[in-house]
Design goal:
about 525 residues; six-stranded mixed beta sheet; about 50% helix; transmembrane helix; manganese; PPP_dom; endoplasmic reticulum
Length: about 525
């Protein structure tokens, strides 16, 4: 009888696995995980089930869970190459190239004649060699100089101002001074000062470069970024035109100065009768950002926004996204607020496409400039003293106060532990208490953790982003936590809706608006990503 029941469980487990495979093919990864879990509960000694569930976790960016499942598959069958393959892919996605290399070396040992395994091992070896080289030539943090401070956007352009004008003007100043000396017999301090000022000033002006006349794109007149410029720039971006590097530098450098003056936790006040919009991840999906503005209006003093991190990576229009958001910030700082996400970091940008896109559309120097400016982004916001908005989530310890967040020294790459890491990486879980992170970074926290944090800080609600949701949002923890995600049909394959939240003072009740993806030019997501990572997408 027991054997019969065991056979029945094995048969049902296979049925669950087959259903899970179909869900996976339909991009229903969460449902696939549930079905693989049922198969594992019926027959936990099948390495295939664990490896398949690991693959589904990878698709949801749950790399920590993928590594655990793949390791279990290897434990069950140490010769099962897909176990190493899935774990190596998850390590790779986390930027842990050395760990990934070990697993792909094992895949090659198990399947020496597999050309796909050979190709991926070779690419992984290249990634590790590049990482070692970059580590070898890197400058210690204490010795690094600001990239921004070495750039003067006024000098960017192929057409210098006429060299004859400042030269003639300077010569005229010298002649005038000489004539005064000839008439009066001496040179006063005042005359010498005027002479020096004229000469230096004219050569300074002459050192500026003009944007070449054949450039037909958006132009910034002088130092001020205007709404007309931003509108023209967005229209150019829609037509896949590029912005002149001079203006791109000006936008990023002016944004840097604004962000540098902000605290790590920014307080936002919404007056009675006014509204405020919070958006989640947009991940380089520029045309969906334009749709948000179509649905909800452009950022302005009367229509302010908070974009809650992960502006870049994965989507292949990240440069257009970041320049648009930064330009609005320069135009009117209180019209748009920007928070740091886990993808506003060197390690993520190197893997998931932003670095390659910046290098392709702008220049190598912009790669370093964006990395510097991302470190100035605030980590969290509080709206009207009641709504806490953060990209990731809460903390591994109780008792964290808003003052602790304000005190974080954020001007660095995100660490792998501590408050800053958890703000950017953590996720809610349905069970109370805390658990390991399904991503492999940060942690998972339950409704009781959310409740205590809100009570400790006299807050009403946590709004966070960081996770794709089928409807574009999800309400958890007895209504005390809302996830909002604003990149519909994420990576052109998830089929999810996007969402944003509108709050209106004084009651500040969340009004959630959902929307679908819009068409975009035929440039695939991850088009600029790390070569090795694209093999798995």
């Amino acid at each position: 009888m027991e054997t019969k029941n065991e056979n029945s469980d094995v048969s049902r487990a296979e049925e669950m696995k087959n259903q899970a495979n179909e869900a996976f093919k339909g991009h229903k990864y969460s449902h696939a995980i549930d079905l693989y879990t049922q198969a594992i509960e019926l027959n936990g000694n099948n390495a295939v089930y664990w490896a398949n569930r690991a693959f589904a976790h990878t698709k949801l960016e749950e790399y920590g869970s993928a590594i655990l499942d793949a390791s279990k598959a290897i434990e069950i069958d140490s010769r099962y190459s897909k176990g190493y393959y899935r774990r190596g892919a998850a390590y790779l996605a986390m930027g842990k190239f050395k760990d990934a290399l070990k697993d792909f070396q094992q895949v090659k040992r198990i399947s020496p004649n597999d050309p796909d395994a050979t190709r991926k091992l070779r690419e992984c070896e290249k990634a590790v060699m590049k990482m070692k080289f970059e580590e070898a030539i890197s400058v210690p943090v204490s010795e690094r100089r600001s990239v921004a401070e070495s750039i003067d956007f006024h000098t960017i352009g192929n057409k210098p101002r006429s060299s004859s004008m400042p030269t003639k003007t300077a010569l005229a100043a010298v002649v005038a001074a000489v004539m005064v000396v000839a008439v009066r017999g001496f040179a006063t301090i005042e005359i010498l000062m005027v002479l020096v000022s004229v000469v230096l000033g004219t050569f300074w002006w002459g050192g500026f470069s003009e944007v070449e006349p054949q450039y037909s794109g958006a132009r910034i007149e002088g130092e001020e970024i205007t709404l007309d410029f931003v509108k023209k720039m967005m229209e150019d971006f829609k037509d896949q035109k590029t912005l002149h590097k001079r203006y791109a530098y000006q936008i990023v450098l002016q944004t840097r100065e604004i962000l540098l003056a902000l605290p790590s936790l920014v307080d936002i006040n919404v007056p009675n009768g006014k509204h405020f919009t919070v958006c989640g991840d947009v991940h380089g999906q520029f045309y969906d950002l334009m749709n948000i503005f179509e649905l909800n209006g452009l950022p302005s003093e009367e229509n302010p926004y908070l974009f809650n991190g992960d502006f870049v990576d994965r989507g292949s229009f990240s440069v257009e996204i970041i320049l648009t958001l930064f330009a609005f910030k320069c135009m009117s700082p209180s019209s748009i607020y920007l928070a740091r996400g886990n993808h506003e970091s060197k390690s993520m940008n190197k893997i998931y496409g932003f670095e390659g896109e910046v290098r392709s559309k702008l220049s190598e120097k912009f790669v370093d400039l964006f990395a510097e400016v991302f470190c100035y982004l605030p980590l969290a916001h509080v709206i009207n003293g009641k709504i806490f908005v953060v990209h990731g989530g809460l903390f591994s310890v109780d008792g964290v106060k808003l003052s602790d967040i304000r005190a974080i020294d954020r001007f660095c790459e995100p660490p792998e532990e501590g408050l800053m890491c958890e703000l950017l990486w953590s996720d809610p879980q349905p069970l109370p208490g805390r658990g390991p992170s399904k991503r492999g970074v940060g942690l998972s926290f339950g409704g009781d953790v959310t409740k205590r944090f809100l009570e400790d800080n006299n807050l009403d609600l946590v709004v966070r982003s960081h996770e794709v949701k089928d409807e574009g949002y999800e309400v958890d923890h007895d209504g005390k936590l809302i996830t909002v995600f604003s990149a519909p049909n994420y990576c052109d394959q998830m089929g999810n809706k996007g969402a944003f939240i509108r709050f209106e003072a004084p009651d500040m009740k969340p009004n959630i608006v959902t929307f679908s993806a819009v068409p975009h030019p035929d440039v695939k997501p991850m088009a600029y990503a790390n070569n090795f990572l694209r093999m798995f997408n």
